[in-house]
Design a protein that fits this description.
293 residues, mainly beta, 2 helices, 12% helix, globular, disordered N terminus
């Protein structure tokens, strides 16, 4: 596998503006298909963003862990990840562990991910949960641009806080945006703003006694058996009494799955089963085992 890290990460890793709180982190990755394999051909990063060495899979796809070696996201951080997948590439992204967002009395942290898929490319974006600490503020966004024949699978998991520390719904703010487009046509747009201090989630019985909210989505150009996929996922939820979930079929084609869980122990097996069902039906492949080291 070829890898050309154009930036070692040892360059300035603080804000470009000394008067501003937080750090400016950037990560730029580009993949191409060479010799029937997905190859990382360009990698540039500036701490606190970094990646581990990509792992080549037997089917020609690549698995890569996105990481923040500082251990978490702090107020004022601006972290931008840009990924370009060439035609026919297949990449699975995850993180080594949950993303912790630390307390900030000042500016919110900004975490932005932009992914562009070339014709026939496959993306599986499966990061672990975001856990906001007491007083944390985060603005995160995920945008995915698709071309003809692409498949995009993604997951987004938010925890109510550090439960063991009694910090349920004690963060200042979390705003989240997911936008998926094919050309200029929006396929899926999802926006959420949670401000527990202004509108406590319990006030409207939001999430009730659940502590994790999970969104999983699949969009695949050319795939049509969405109702069959939905039926299998709904059957899974009917058998999983530890979570509460459901799914919907966007008019543009695809499936959006949402479920609530009380603990991380409940989240992981159910999410991986949902993902496994989608992989089996859409990609005709078996479950993917996420290696975290």
């Amino acid at each position: 596998m070829e890898s050309t890290p154009s930036l070692t990460g040892s360059a300035a890793n603080c804000s470009l503006n000394p008067s501003r709180t937080g750090r400016d982190g950037s990560l730029s990755l580009r993949f191409e298909r060479r010799l029937q394999k997905t190859t990382l051909v360009e990698c540039r990063f500036q701490l606190p963003l970094q990646v581990l060495t990509p792992i080549q899979q037997e089917d020609g796809s690549t698995y890569m862990l996105l990481l923040n070696p500082t251990g978490g996201v702090l107020g004022g951080d601006r972290l931008v990840t840009v990924v370009a997948q060439g035609a026919g590439t297949h990449v699975c992204f995850s993180t080594p562990s949950a993303t912790r967002v630390y307390r900030s009395p000042g500016p919110a942290a900004i975490q932005e991910t932009r992914i562009r898929l070339g014709p026939g490319a496959v993306l599986e974006y499966m990061p672990d949960a975001v856990i906001p600490h007491r007083g944390a503020a985060l603005q995160q966004s995920l945008s995915i641009e698709l071309e003809a024949g692409c498949v995009a699978m993604f997951a987004d998991t938010l925890a109510a806080g550090r439960l063991a520390h009694g910090e349920r719904w004690s963060f200042r703010q979390v705003s989240s945006e997911i936008v998926i487009k094919q050309g200029a046509k929006p396929l899926f747009i999802d926006r959420a703003l949670i401000e527990p201090g202004r509108i406590p989630p319990a006030r409207f019985n939001v999430m009730e006694d659940y502590n994790y909210a999970v969104t999983f989505g699949v969009l695949a150009d050319g795939y049509s058996a969405w109702r069959d996929l939905q039926g299998k996922i709904e059957s899974l939820f009917a058998a999983c009494t530890q979570v509460r979930g459901g799914s919907s079929l966007p008019a543009s084609g695809g499936i959006i799955v949402r479920f609530l869980a009380k603990s991380a122990v409940d989240v992981h097996p159910v999410l991986h089963q949902v993902w496994g069902i989608a992989r089996s039906m859409v990609l005709k492949q078996g479950p993917f085992i996420l290696r975290k080291y």
